[in-house]
Specification:
- This protein is an alpha+beta fold.
- The chain is 23% helix and 28% strand.
- The protein has a six-stranded mixed beta sheet with strand order 4-3-14-13-10-9. The chain has a four-stranded mixed beta sheet with strand order 1-2-5-6.
- Helix 2 crosses helix 3 and helix 4 crosses helix 6.
- It is globular.
Length: 341
């Protein structure tokens, strides 16, 4: 996976919080987490794709503890009922466009059943999150298929994570700007050991961008004002950590993933699917982190998600959809002039 080529929030002095980041400031800083994308484009008709988050060794015989929270459930997050019932994630997590989610889930099932050790599997819970890219892509064409899913899984790697208009984020918009995939991480002391938390967002939600106490609109940056649209959209936030947590504690962490969107100006409208999923890569019988010691981990989640959203906006490039709708990425130079003016 190639390194980012556009400035990220931290490069511009817009990093959030005081905790240090991991090496790549990405969810892949968490040991055992890999990310892959397949981008599907045929401009101006199609801007879509799929993103795979692949924890090492995961499978139906080796699930990981996980928690899930729906801030607003206007969405089609496949596989969450069993996940919340058992507190276990047993497949890679895939993100894609709303109407492609069901094809993606079927492809994920096929891929998992082919993996070593799954020869006798007779039940499987694929987990696939989605956002609606119908403004900038022909969503009804359902362009994401099995080959794209397999390519995203095959390309999943550690290291820097491509952001913006890639994978599932290719056709997404947020806060009046072009958006997509964003990521960030934090390193912190927790229960006597160094812990890493990473966030990855698929940003596609309504509201007005907020940086600290200041709101920022496209007009503030000299960009065309987008025509008014219903205040709908979605955001999927994935948190990964190597902290020893159970499903209940991870559900508490997942809630903070959705709460963090408020810092960026999210509107949480009726038509928005705002979801948080948190998992740990640690399978252990060691004592779990006490609830009273989770405060710093919660802070890390809030900071990492806020920065990941900013990264998704800064990395995105201007995109025109099939009906002429345009969304502009967040331009770094005008933004700094505005904030420093």
């Amino acid at each position: 996976m190639t390194a980012p080529t556009t400035p990220r929030a931290r490069d511009l002095g817009l990093g959030t919080g005081t905790l240090p980041t991991g090496r790549h400031n990405a969810i892949t800083d968490v040991p055992g987490i890999r990310v892959g994308h397949t981008t599907v484009t045929a401009p101006p008709r199609v801007h879509s794709g799929v993103t795979a988050i692949l924890p090492e060794g995961i499978g139906p015989r080796a699930p990981l503890p996980a928690g899930f929270f729906a801030g607003n459930g206007y969405g089609k997050f496949i596989g969450t009922t069993q996940l919340t019932e058992l507190g276990e994630l047993e497949t890679p997590l895939l993100l894609t466009s709303t109407l492609s989610a069901f094809r993606v889930a079927d492809a994920l099932v096929g891929w998992v059943l082919e993996q070593p050790g799954a020869e006798d599997v007779r039940s499987l819970n694929p987990v696939v999150g989605e956002c609606n890219d119908g403004l900038l892509s022909d969503i009804r064409s359902r362009p994401v298929g099995e080959g794209h899913v397999r390519a995203a899984l095959a390309s999943a790697n550690t290291g820097p994570v491509a952001e913006g208009c890639v994978g599932a984020g290719t056709g997404m918009s947020a806060l009046g700007f072009k958006a997509g995939i964003g990521t960030s991480s934090r390193v912190l002391p927790l229960a006597g050991r160094e812990t890493t938390l990473g966030a990855l967002v698929l940003a596609n939600f309504g509201g007005t961008l907020r940086l600290g106490s200041r709101t920022v609109t496209p007009a503030d940056l000299g960009l065309p004002i987008p025509p008014p649209l219903p205040d709908t959209g979605s955001c999927v936030v994935v948190l990964a950590t190597d902290a020893p947590l159970d499903a209940r504690r991870l559900t508490r962490l997942a809630r903070r993933a959705v709460f963090a969107l408020a810092r960026t100006g999210a509107s949480y409208s009726h038509g928005s699917g705002d979801y948080g999923l948190a998992l740990t890569t640690t399978r252990t019988t060691a004592p779990l982190v006490p609830d009273a010691d989770l405060d710093l981990l919660f802070t890390a989640a809030l900071d990492a998600v806020e920065e990941a959203v900013l990264n998704s906006l800064l990395a995105a490039t201007t995109t025109t959809g099939p009906r002429g709708d345009v969304r502009h990425g967040l331009p770094a130079a005008p933004l700094l002039r505005l904030l420093n003016g």
